[in-house]
Amino acid sequence: MQWLMNGLRISNIQAACKDSSKIILEPAPVGIQRLQAIIEAIEDKNTLNITYKSHYGEPKEHQFIPVFIRLFKQRWYVIGQDIELEQPITFALERICELSHQEEARELSENLVDILDPETYFADCYGIIRKHNPIKIQFRAFWPQNLYLKDLPIHESQILIDETENHSDFEIYVRPTYDLKQELLWNRDKLAVLAPESFRQDMIAILEATLKGYQTGDSYAVNE
To answer: Is-contact 29 22, C-beta < 8 A?
Structure first.
């Protein structure tokens, strides 16, 4: 509701401005044309037939029980149960090729009721990937990036553990996923992972592969 209210305020401000070109907005989240149908299925407890095209294979059909939706980095996702596999699954809305309702209502598998709880499903996650057990990660942010990370923490668990004039040391408790590594690398040379050593070595391997890619023009796989 707060997100919707903020969006309405921005829209009203832009409408009231005599020259709307003076207010530059980010592009609207992609995949929004599927949103209403998915919300209706969640409310009516209907299952969905989804044809989904991932970036790693051919389109595939799924029978799916939608449970909740999430917006992350300008992309909509729907999270629920794959009926055939009886396991949680996440779909990015812009990669849904076809979508249709099934009138029959289906209940979640008993073993997934507690797991697919919107309040806790992404606990200890940075973004949309839910893999690995959460760990404590310590990193050092150098001036002036440390000031930005104080204003806008990387994760809600972030705490300040040490500070000097030139840097700040932070700790987060989070799953060490691909999207978290992307976020840490976004800070370039202004952030360095300190601990644990295994995660620090993972980051070093990514940086070494990146350097080789620049030097040779080839991609180098890094285990995630």
So the answer is: no
